[in-house]
Amino acid sequence: MTTTVPAPAALTLGPLSVWPPVVLAPMAGITNPPFRRLCREHGAGLYVCEMITTRALVERNAKTMAMVRFDADESPRSVQLYGVDPDVVGRAVEMVVDEDLADHIDLNFGCPVPKVTRRGGGSALPYRRRLFENIVRTAVKKAGDLPVTVKMRKGIDPAHLTFLDAGRIAQDSGVAWVALHGRTAADMYSGTADWSAIGELKAALDIPVLGNGDIWEADDALRMMAETGCDGVVVGRGCLGRPWLFGDLAAAFAGRPERVLPTLREVSRTMYRHAELLVEHLGEHGVVDFRKHVAWYLKGFSVGSEARGALARVSSLGQLADRLGALELDQPYPVQTLGQPRGRTSSPRPVALPQGWLDDPEDGSVPSGAELADSGG
């Protein structure tokens, strides 16, 4: 059954307007210019590049500078910055502004991976309220007219929830909106996202709140907005191997019932298009980079392990075309996969933190060796 909600308003992002109120979440190794273009060809919204480490940006790390690239027709240009030191974050924001690298800055306080949290970053950082406030206030001040937003998780674990305090601090610091993933860092990508926390944050703030977590279909987005009152949604794993989800979301927010259910032939054309864009962006290595997407695209289709393995070993566009052409392409879309999780899953686990991190939430000092030297999560 299709969920209906009153037509939501466009998201205001400084001088920009985002419609439909849909954001592509930054995903390391995924949300590069080719994938963002592919998604934009199917729908509309705000498409965020991979996470950029502030230290790597200010040091002009070659890999990082290549990641801060946008297609000429990509607007708004949205970059997510990760940092733990307010001074370094401030310099990175100044660089984005002075060199016109983007139209919008999102601050990452949601990453749960150990290499980030053990340095006090990502979803661990909002526990240190003063440090969190210093980073966000510095970023907003240095950004000037450039809009700044915050993406975060519920907290470190159920005993150390931070989202309400962090949301209020972010609002008072002048951010345009806050996005909340309804999981803690300890949850990683396990279980079911807690949408009630999104509703709780929405009720506590005056600025827009976006919801993130377990949006596998367009109707999930409508249901989240109906249940929580949130102002928009952030989509991550749900679009892996399914860039047409953004077309479904555009239809859903416009009140239209149609949803895309491509045959394997149509999916194979999208797969080739994706690989082609990656080759334009990365050269010959683009086909190798495409390999990780194969299983996501083929999820639920009747494709044997031998054929899947061959597709996951392709090394040229010609080889990819041949192996796609050998499939039984008239298969209908496997509707049994609708609403099912996609991408990485994991079990809950203790969060890696700096020594003494939980001792004093008012401690505003920067952990030693906190800044990461490379980008991408």
Spatially, the strands of the biggest sheet line up as: 3-4-5-6-7-10-11-12
Largest sheet: 8 strands, parallel, barrel
The helix-strand sequence is EEEHEHHEHEHHEEEHEHEHEHHHHHH
CATH class of the largest domain: Alpha Beta
**Count of runs of 4 or more consecutive helical residues:** 15
* Helix content class: 25-40%
| Number of distinct beta strands | 12
Would you kindly provide a written description of the structure presented here, covering whatever features stand out?
The protein has 377 residues and is an alpha/beta fold. The protein has 2 domains: 11-253, TIM Barrel, CATH 3.20.20; 264-330, Non-ribosomal Peptide Synthetase Peptidyl Carrier Protein, Chain A (Orthogonal Bundle), CATH 1.10.1200. It has helices spanning 33-42, 54-58, 62-67, 86-98, 114-117, 129-143, 163-173, 195-204, 218-228, 245-253, 264-282, 285-290, 294-298, 305-311, 317-325, and strands at residues 11-13, 16-18, 22-24, 46-53, 78-82, 104-109, 148-153, 155-157, 160-161, 178-181, 209-212, 232-235. Strand 10, helix 8 (195-204) and strand 11 (209-212) form a beta-alpha-beta unit. It is globular and about 60 Å long. The two termini are 37 Å apart. The model has no long low-confidence stretch (mean pLDDT 95).
What's the helix and strand layout?
Elements: E1 11-13, E2 16-18, E3 22-24, H1 33-42, E4 46-53, H2 54-58, H3 62-67, E5 78-82, H4 86-98, E6 104-109, H5 114-117, H6 129-143, E7 148-153, E8 155-157, E9 160-161, H7 163-173, E10 178-181, H8 195-204, E11 209-212, H9 218-228, E12 232-235, H10 245-253, H11 264-282, H12 285-290, H13 294-298, H14 305-311, H15 317-325
Parallel strand pairs: 3-4, 3-12, 4-5, 5-6, 6-7, 7-10, 10-11, 11-12
Antiparallel strand pairs: 1-2, 8-9
